[in-house]
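Technical note accompanying the year-one report. For the benefit of new consortium partners, we illustrate the data format agreed upon in the data management plan: each record pairs a sequence with a structure-token string. No post-processing was applied to the example shown here.
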Amino acid sequence: EQMSKTEGKKGELEDDVAKMTSKIDTAAAKSAELKEQVMALEGELASLAKEQAEMDKIRSETHAAFETAKADLSLGLTGVHNALSVLREYYQGGDAAAMLQQDGSFMQQPAAPEHHSKSSGAGSSIIGILEVCESDFANNLAKEEQQEADAESVYQKITQENKITVASKEQDVKYKTQESKSLDSTVAELSSDRETTNAELSAVLEYYGKIKERCIAKPETYEVRKASREAEIEGLKKALATLNDETAFLQKKNRRHSMRGSVIAAQ
């Protein structure tokens, strides 16, 4: 009965150890997988941060170039526009031909030479050239502004997408790190419990071995069986020899009695 109880306890402890080992292996594998995922996410976040920094730098540089180009084109456009206004008034007979406005100030033009007369053909040619220049300045300024608007739109779109992606990945890192730490804690607790159970199992196995040794006869070795057999045969031989001696003695005794009886009968 004691041996049966010990075997039952032994089996129970072995099952507990096996279950805890399985849980430890599963938790440890999941924790390792989560840590690898966190490392990958952190690498992706670092790449996104680098890409965003480069994009910020490029956007700042292109915006600064736009501001410079815009200022130059606006200045040129204003100058051409003012020159056209003056020339048109001049060739239309106005009194403003002597004054040219630039940046809010007026520059005094030299007085017309004596016997000077207007040339409508030359005026029209000059005005035509300036109108082309004005159109070019306006078109270039419009292109620059459109390119700037497009660049800013793309920049804002990608930046917003990056913010959403970064927020999502940071949340993943946070939760996966927490889960990994929780699993590591579980592994530590289960490992401690398994160590305690293993110690108890070792004690039960030691006790079980002692009981088994007392309750179950050990099989004899070949040498022991051989010696026992030889002793048994030797004993049988001695018994047989003794039996043979006793038989011979009885036979002799019987013969003597038989002979003695014959003698008495003869008398």
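Partners are asked to follow this layout when depositing records. The two ends are 82 Å apart (CA to CA).
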